[in-house]
Amino acid sequence: MTERETLTWDGFGRVGRELAQAIADDGFRPDLILAVARGGLLAAGSISYALDVKRVHLINVEFYTGVDQRLDVPVLLSPVPDAGDLDGASVLIVDDVADTGATLKLVRDFCAGHAATVRTAVIYEKPHSEVRCEYVWARTDKWINFPWSSEPAVTAAPV
């Protein structure tokens, strides 16, 4: 079995504040946070509270279909946000991991021409990512077990 990076719930408890501190120390004050669903939802919520940014938007992108299995290209899923909501804004895109970087590139391109400033924050960044994020909690080349996605989906108990 491939060696894996494991983020626990306790570890995640530090992630949002530490990323938010790095963002604040850099002097960046986003007008809104664009959470990449699903992986970036929890991190975006944590960072939004830590930075006291109340405008949190959601963009849903499908790319990974399983462990090390993905579509050929990432795909925006509906509902697609109104890009006009980004006009002139300083936007912080938040996701759980920059693996290939294709998802973040798609979202960053979606913001282009609308947002005044776009920066990215991730929990993990991999060395082969085509997007270099401004804010990274940790770097790894391993597959990551996140506490919210490491267990199988919940199903109804048998009757």
Automatic annotation (TrEMBL):
Keyword Transferase: yes
InterPro entries, A to Z: PRTase-like, PRTase_dom
Keyword Transferase attached: yes
A GO molecular-function descriptor: glycosyltransferase activity
Keyword terms of this UniProt record: Glycosyltransferase, Transferase
Highest taxon of the lineage: Bacteria
Coiled coil, from the record: none
Ranges of residues in domain Phosphoribosyltransferase: 11-149
One family name in Pfam for this protein: Pribosyltran
PANTHER family per the UniProt record, alphabetical: HYPOXANTHINE PHOSPHORIBOSYLTRANSFERASE, HYPOXANTHINE-GUANINE PHOSPHORIBOSYLTRANSFERASE
Protein name, as recorded: Phosphoribosyltransferase
Lineage: Bacteria, Bacillati, Actinomycetota, Actinomycetes, Micromonosporales
